[in-house]
Design goal:
The complex is a heterodimer of chains A (448) and B (585).
Chain A (H helix, E strand, L loop, with lengths): L1 E2 L3 E2 L5 E3 L5 E6 L2 E6 L5 E6 L6 E4 L5 E6 L4 E6 L6 E5 L5 E6 L5 E6 L4 E6 L5 E5 L8 E3 L5 E8 L2 E8 L4 E7 L5 E6 L5 E6 L6 E5 L4 E5 L8 E6 L5 E6 L3 E6 L5 E6 L3 E2 L5 E8 L10 H5 L8 E7 L3 E2 L16 E6 L5 E6 L5 E6 L4 E7 L6 E4 L6 E4 L4 E6 L2 E6 L10 E4 L5 E5 L3 E6 L1 H5 L1
Parallel strand pairs in A: 28-34
Antiparallel strand pairs in A: 1-41, 2-41, 3-4, 4-5, 5-6, 7-8, 8-9, 9-10, 11-12, 12-13, 13-14, 15-16, 16-17, 17-18, 19-20, 20-21, 21-22, 23-24, 24-25, 25-26, 27-30, 28-29, 31-32, 32-33, 33-34, 35-36, 36-37, 37-38, 39-40, 40-41
Chain B lengths: L1 H8 L1 H13 L9 H10 L4 H6 L9 H15 L15 H124 L5 E4 L16 H56 L3 H24 L3 H44 L1 H34 L4 H69 L2 H5 L10 H13 L2 H13 L11 H24 L1 H23 L3
Helix pairs in contact in B: 3-6, 7-9, 8-9, 11-13, 11-16, 13-15
The chains are: A mainly beta (448), B mainly alpha (585).
Protein name (chain A): WD repeat containing, antisense to TP73
InterPro entries (chain A): Centrosome-WD_assoc (IPR052778), WD40/YVTN_repeat-like_dom_sf (IPR015943), WD40_repeat_dom_sf (IPR036322), WD40_rpt (IPR001680)
GO cellular component, one term (chain A): MWP complex
């Protein structure tokens, strides 16, 4: 495992182009595009203000930089560095900006969710979509980029509009059977739309592309409901994480529950392996404080850690959520399927230090990673069953079916990994600290 | 109490009979003062008056007395008849009778009195006891009454509490209802408000939108240096009805393709499953068919059923083959046949199970009978082997450990050391063996010695006996009748007389020898073999033996102790021989 030198970034704005060739980072009001392999600067663009949001177009030809405070969006072209485009949303304000899947339209959501403005780079035309709903995830494109589903709110009722992204033709418009729609998400094959209600009611609805209600599912009533939803890459499973600390897996044929994964505080499942991170402060004896130690400069100050397999049954550290506050820290808030559909990683909010990995073939618990600090972020390798996670310290952790490893980021000073993501080839991992970034190359490990 | 009563009751009837029997001749004589006295006492007459006054009867008033007494007696129901005599005096017999009667009466009365007294005592104690118990019971009653009242009080209180609690509950319920209604009203209110707000909000948004549109926000603009071509390279199209239709078509196509892929995958899965099912079925048939052969020996109905189902199976098979495509009809058939097969397999398995268990049982029994011994032997052998193996392993381990623990240069030394110790051990073992052998020899010798000692003791005893006998014969020889008894014996030598005893002994102790002798003797003169020699024969042989032994005896006359010794020695040798035979065992 090799690490690159540390680069600067701000606002965690660092994206790899969809084709995997370039790395774009924002430093204050500057946009830097580098070659992913050499990390040499290819282009340098200067924006009008500090960039709040940055996004690659799907064809890796354009980069969008949004400055929400000013209500401005600037677009840069990689092919023609002198080409530029500036979109001003004017006095109405801007809260969100994104590319349409074709990479030729920009969708700006104005303040108060008043409307969505669709700007075309081809025709300079502008069109509006009224009544978008302000919610957790009110807009989603299909994976092939042909359709967009949008949650709307009109006359105190939830509606869903399906647009054809080609020409923004409204394909379907139907009322959804939700009290207060919280989010929607297309299945990866783009044929089923999962729609879920907000946390006051456990309700998930499945609509076909043509607006037919395929099924609805509710696990229980009178208690806080869905917290997170995730499709498996094959569209075969729909994982629904809820406030009752369970994940329910629905199948794609009957849309009924296949199984549910509990997150018990005491793990007794003998088929599961519990990896516990154990920190070890290096013992610095007087003779150890020699050249050898000093060359490994930062290891002197950072703690080493390793995983130990815990004997079952074992207790997982649990925090007690404050019941008087809204959005209590309990329940499954994040789930991710591995690219090969075999594994599901989940995080239960009242066990913030633990990450759970489930085997989708056996439909059972496979591993639990018990970290010393709360898990910040976990991402699957897009190619292999390999999970990377970080906990806000100087280490990056990797899990694979073969085992678990903790790697210290060997850079000068302290590099506290706040978030991370994979390069689309799975060959490297981009680690982000508060104001820096670092590439971690996995080739060496792969060769082994 | 009843027990106590019976003996007192018993004498009563006898007394009565006595009374009756003696009634006829009762007469009373007042001469006996004490009887009178006793009578008086029973009659509860004041003693004082009797003692103070002059005697009841004097010479003068005898007749009056008699009359009085007879009257009294009559009044007592004793028929004091004719106390007065013709002679003017009192005849003793009736008086005595009367007296006796009176005495009896008195005794009975006294006994009754006693009984009554004791009864009274008893009754008194009973009464006391009853009073006591009564008191106790009263106390108890009081106590229970108090308790009862306490409980009643408790109950009352509890009921009160219940009542209050019920009231509370009712009020709580009411409150809950109230709260619920409040909540619902609030909820409706809230919903209403939110709706209103939302409506307002949307109205505001609308207005804002309108304003924005009307105002023509100068800033709202896009600046593009030059237009970009579409990513697909095509030009954008106008929005027309045709486009709409195309979109619809595309959507449906997408859906259709999705359904198709799904159907294809399902078909694939289905065919896989079917294949598996077929395979399973084939396997089942394969498993079941050999069984059919053996089953045919079994009850006919079973095999018949088997055959029938088999035939049906084949038809189903063939039909299924043709119906593979349209699974609607085939499905049922398939599942049915599979189910049938499965059931058969199950029953077959069960039967097999039972058979196996039966056979196993029988085998076990047979084996148990036959080869327990073998088993044990085998077990013993295996155990021995195990032990050996264990030892071997242990030794190896030890060696290994030694090897491991010892540094490399010490290895050879350790090895040598090991060799030495092994040698030493061998030697020690050898010595131990020798020592054991010696010990055994010694033991044997000791045993022989003790044996000899015992024999010597025996000899000595017999010698003593012999001597005593000899002395006796000597003594007897002195008497005249001895001569008569032994006329046939050869000239008795002083020492020879002793030999008679050994003869007798010979006769008694080694009868076999004599017998064989007699055999040899008798067989020659007579053809018919005599099994048991009669006493006459015996005598004859005895006579013969002395003859044959005559000179032997004469010889051995002085050498008796020597011959004894010899016999002893032979005996000894025999015994030692036996010992030798025994020793290896």
């Amino acid at each position: 495992m090799n690490f690159s030198e540390v680069l600067k970034q701000s606002n965690q704005l660092c994206k790899v182009s969809p084709d995997g060739k370039y790395l774009a980072t924002c430093v204050q009001y500057r946009l830097v595009v580098r070659d992913i392999n050499t990390l040499q600067i290819l282009h340098l663009y200067t924006c009008l203000d500090q960039v709040m949001h940055m996004e690659w177009s799907s064809d890796s030809l354009f980069i969008l930089c949004a400055m929400y405070k000013r209500g401005l969006v600037q677009v840069w072209s990689l092919e023609q560095p002198d080409w530029h485009c500036k979109i001003d949303e004017g006095s109405i304000g801007l809260v969100s900006s994104r590319w349409s899947p074709d990479g030729r339209h920009i969708l700006n959501t104005t303040e108060f969710n008043l409307r969505i403005t669709v700007w075309s780079l081809c025709t300079k035309s502008v069109s509006y979509i009224k009544y978008p709903k302000a919610c957790q995830k009110g807009m989603d494109f299909t994976a092939d980029g042909r359709y967009m589903a949008l949650a709307e709110r009109r006359e105190c009722k939830d509606y869903i509009s399906v647009f054809v992204c080609d020409d923004w033709h409204l394909l379907r418009h139907f009322e959804s059977e939700t009290q207060d729609l919280a989010g929607l998400e297309w299945s990866p094959n783009g044929c089923v739309l999962a729609v879920w209600d907000n946390c006051l009611e456990y309700k998930i609805l499945l609509y076909s592309l043509d607006g037919r209600l395929l099924s609805s599912y509710s696990a229980y009533e009178w208690s806080l409901g869905i917290k997170s939803v995730s499709w498996s890459p094959s569209s075969q499973f729909l994982a629904v994480g809820s406030f009752d600390e369970k994940v329910r897996i629905l199948n794609h044929i009957t849309w009924k529950k296949i199984t549910e994964f509990e997150h018990p505080a005491t793990i007794v499942n003998t088929k599961a392996v519990v990896f516990k991170e154990v920190e070890k402060r290096p013992v610095v004896g007087s003779e150890d404080l020699s050249i050898h130690q000093l060359t490994m400069d930062n290891s002197l100050f950072s703690t080493q850690s390793k995983y130990e397999i815990t004997q079952l049954p074992t207790q997982v550290p649990v925090i007690k959520p404050d019941p008087d506050r809204a959005n209590p820290k309990i329940g499954v808030s994040a789930m991710a399927f591995s690219a090969d559909n075999r594994y599901l990683a989940t995080k239960n909010d009242n066990m913030p230090q633990s990450l759970w990995v489930w085997d989708m073939q056996r439909l059972g618990l496979l591993a639990v990673l018990e970290q010393t600090a709360p898990v910040r972020c976990f991402v699957w390798d897009p190619r292999r069953p390999r999970l990377a996670l970080c906990t806000g310290n100087t280490k990056v952790y990797l899990w694979s079916p073969a085992g678990c490893v903790s790697v210290n980021v060997p850079v000068e000073g302290s590099f506290q990994v706040q978030s991370l993501f994979w390069h689309c080839s799975g060959s490297s991992l981009i680690l982000l600290s508060k104001e820096q970034l670092c590439l971690c190359y996995m080739e060496a490990e792969e060769e082994k | 109490m009843g027990d106590w009563w019976t003996p007192t009751m018993m004498p009563d009837p006898s007394l009565d009979t006595k009374e009756l029997s003696s009634i006829s001749g009762i007469s009373m004589s007042p001469s006996r003062r004490n009887s009178h006295h006793s009578l008086h006492s029973t009659m509860a007459l004041p003693k004082t008056s009797y003692s103070v006054l002059s005697a009841f009867c004097t010479e003068e008033n005898i007749s009056q007395c008699i009359a009085y007494i007879s009257q009294e007696v009559c009044s007592l129901g004793l028929t004091g008849v004719s106390l007065e005599c013709k002679s003017g005096g009192l005849s003793a017999v009736p008086v005595l009778n009367l007296l006796y009667e009176v005495l009896q009466l008195q005794r009975r009365a006294q006994r009754a009195l006693h009984e009554l007294e004791s009864q009274q005592l008893k009754n008194g104690s009973d009464l006391e006891h009853l009073q006591h118990s009564n008191c106790r019971l009263k106390d108890q009653l009081e106590h229970t009454r108090r308790e009862n009242s306490g409980l009643h009080e408790g109950e009352r209180q509890l009921q009160l509490k219940i009542k209050t609690l019920q009231n509370c509950l009712k009020s709580e319920k009411e409150e809950v209802q109230k709260l619920q209604s409040i909540i619902s009203s609030r909820a409706t209110q809230y919903n209403h408000d939110t709706k209103r707000k939302e409506r307002e909000c949307s109205k505001l948004k609308e207005r804002l939108n309108q304003l924005l549109v009307d105002k023509r926000d100068k800033k709202l603009a896009i600046e593009v240096s030059n237009y970009v071509g579409r990513s697909d390279g095509k030009r954008s199209l106008w929005k027309t009805g045709k486009m709409e239709a195309r979109h619809e078509g595309e959507m449906y196509r997408a859906l259709l393709s999705d359904y198709e892929t799904r159907q294809r995958s399902l078909m694939l899965e289905n065919s896989e499953l079917k294949k598996v099912l077929q395979h399973m079925k084939k396997d089942m048939i394969a498993i079941l068919s050999p069984k059919k052969l053996c089953v045919k020996m079994e009850p006919a109905d079973d095999s018949l059923e088997q055959a029938g189902s088999e035939g049906e199976e084949e038809t189903a098979d063939s039909s299924r083959e043709t119906l593979e495509q349209s699974c609607e009809q085939a499905r049922e058939q398939l599942t049915n046949s599979i189910r049938l097969q499965w059931r058969k397999l199950k029953s077959h398995m069960e039967r097999l199970d039972s058979q196996v268990s039966l056979v196993a049982c029988q085998e076990r029994e047979a084996e148990e009978l036959m080869s327990r011994k073998e088993h044990e032997e085998e077990m013993q052998r295996i155990r021995l082997e195990l032990q050996q193996c264990k030892e071997f392993i242990h030794m190896q381990q030890q060696l290994l450990q030694q090897q491991l623990s010892a540094p490399c240069d010490d290895e050879t030394a350790a090895l040598l050391n090991d060799c030495y110790t092994l040698e030493e051990k061998e030697r020690l073992k050898e010595e131990w063996r020798l020592f054991n052998e010696q010990k055994r020899n010694f033991e044997r010798e000791r045993k022989n010695f003790t044996e000899a000692a015992i024999r010597l003791g025996h000899e000595r005893k017999t010698f003593e006996e012999d001597r005593a006998a000899w002395l006796k014969t000597q003594f007897l020889n002195m008497t005249p009748f001895v001569d008569r008894k032994r006329p046939a014996l050869p000239e008795p030598h002083s020492a020879l007389s002793v030999s008679t005893e050994p003869e007798a002994k010979l006769q008694s102790t080694p009868p076999l020898l004599t017998k064989s002798l007699s055999y040899t003797v008798f067989s020659t003169p007579k053809a018919a073999p005599v099994k048991m020699p009669s006493t006459a024969d015996l005598y004859r042989t005895l006579q013969l033996i002395p003859e044959s032994r005559g000179h032997g005896k004469c010889q051995s006359g002085e050498m008796l102790p020597k011959s004894r010794l010899r016999s002893c020695s032979t005996d000894c040798s025999v015994i030692s021989l036996v010992r030798d035979e025994n020793s290896p065992i």
